[in-house]
Amino acid sequence: MKSNFTQRAITGGIFVAAIIGCTLLSEFSFFILLFAINFLCLLEFYELVLPDKRWIEKYLGIICGSIIFIMFALIFSADLSLAWYYNLIPVFLFMFIIKLFEKTHNEFSTLAFQVLGLLYITLPLVMLCKMGFLNSLTYSAGLPMGFFFLLWTSDTGAYIAGRAFGKTKLFERISPKKTWEGSIGGTIFTMAIAFALSFVFDDVQLIDWLIIGLLVVVFGTFGDLFESLLKRNLHIKDSGTLLPGHGGVLDRFDGLFLAIPAVFFYLMLTN
């Protein structure tokens, strides 16, 4: 037990330090961080949902997701013009046309999972990348870094409060350990950090940080539940083994994939 805790602590410390360092250092390191997350999460996702497929069927989604992410990152940083958005068309055309040559008799289910991976993983990471360039072509780490802090606080606060006070199940059918008491505790912790972030990062106003914090709690929880549902359908405990003591990369970012679109939608409405 002690060994597992030490392993989790070391892995978690390196994991958090890498995210903070890459996000704060420069736009290039931030791009590399998100590209790596995108690649590893897509790899885990396709290994889970397409376990018996050939490598080309698994890696097609990863290749397309990587191309899409790189293209958008370069557009956001003004290295490519807005006209490059149209290159999404040949990417998706390629994904559809290649099905004519697979001869697996499950082409449409494979295509559905490939597109789902792009919508579920790549699209939110593109939105997170854009948050670093919300109102300017110059990179600002405030919103992405604040988002990570809020997401971590929500998870940690819910865990602490749930262990101490948890009795009422939140969604027992999918995640028996989640409780309403944990969620309320996570919300209180997250709101406190959101208030503090308004004094550290001035990318948005106090009210915006508070609303973003609330969105992270609600949709981050939905993201956790969605991945739990995925794993229950696949009859697995963890999405992978890349992070010792923590499972897979998808396990560590599951809340992000639904929280980011909600936060991004709010920011687009108000900025």
What does this structure look like?
The chain has one domain. Helices cover 73% and strands 3% of the residues. The protein is built from 10 helices and 2 strands. The protein has helices spanning 2-25, 27-49, 55-76, 88-97, 107-131, 142-165, 180-200, 206-234, 249-253, 256-270; strands at 169-171, 175-179.
Summarize the structure in short.
By secondary structure, this protein is an all-alpha fold.
Structural class of the secondary structure composition? mainly alpha
**Spatial gap, N to C terminus:** 48 Å
- What is the overall silhouette? globular
Number of strands: 2
Could you tell me the mean pLDDT? 88
Overall helicity: over 70%
Contiguous low-pLDDT stretches (5 residues minimum) are none
Note the main sheet: 2 strands, antiparallel
Gyration radius, in Å: 19 Å
How many discrete structural domains? 1
Contiguous helical run count: 10
Sheet-strand content, in percent, reads: under 5%
Helix-strand string = HHHHHHEEHHHH
Order of strands across the main sheet: 1-2
